[in-house]
Amino acid sequence: MRRLALVSIALLWCTAASSGSGASSGRHAASWWGRLNVEEQQAYLDGISDCLQYDVHRDYPNLPNGPDRGLIGEFYEAHPAQRHLTVLQVLPKVPPQVRRQTPSGGEVWPERHAYFDGLYWKGSERGKLPFIQGYLDCRAESDAGFAIQYPGPPERYVSLIDKWYERHPNREDEKIALVLARFRHPYKR
What domain range is 150 assigned to? Predict the structure, then answer.
């Protein structure tokens, strides 16, 4: 009987973890993607890109940027039976993008997490939540223990990051991922 109770608790925990209460919810699929505006879609992809390039150290040559992010929507339209796949699962299935060379004299971000800092954060009011969702989804998919570190809803982390940047107005150069790391479980207030 005790063994059955433990198995039931484990199943409930796994169900809760996969149903949206933690960092990666699995709900970021076709219908969710279609409800986002262009800024929100790009912010979600920016969060994934920040995670993949600087934390997971995986390169996705087909990570859409700019107008090419429409390829994700096109994939869902062309493959209706795969509309349940998350955006992260669809990314490897979209055609690779041509890498754009930095124009001569163009701005380059050699430091870790590129330009995803306080200025990016403050300049994207509608993109804050999708950025954090993309970042957390990517980290949770690449590291099974990561979701346990960030068990709260993404909205909670957006609020905490907002408050951190408000309390530290002279630290706009602090990268979003590093500010987020300050709020790993247990929550810091």
Answer: 25-98+112-181
Report if residue 105 sits inside a domain: no
**CA-CA-CA-CA torsion for 140, 132, 189, 162, nearest 10 degrees?**
170
What would the two tokens of residue 28 be? Answer: 């970021």
- The pLDDT, as a whole number, for residue 112 is 83
Neighbours of 40 (CB within 10 A): 20
Mean pLDDT on 181-186: 82
Q: What is the pTM of this model?
A: 0.78
Please report the pLDDT score of residue 108 as a whole number. Answer: 64
Residue 75 in any domain: the answer is: yes
CB 99, CB 68: distance < 8 Å: no
What is d(CA 23, CA 141) in angstroms, rounded to the nearest whole number?
10
Q: 109 versus 101: which is more confidently predicted? A: 109
Secondary structure letter of residue 25 according to DSSP: -
Angle between helices 128-142 and 38-51 (to 10 degrees): 40
pLDDT at 54: 82
Task: Kindly list the distances between the CA atom of residue 89 and the CA atoms of 21, 39, 76, 103, in Å, as whole numbers in the listed order.
Answer: 20, 21, 11, 31
In a domain, 3, yes or no: no
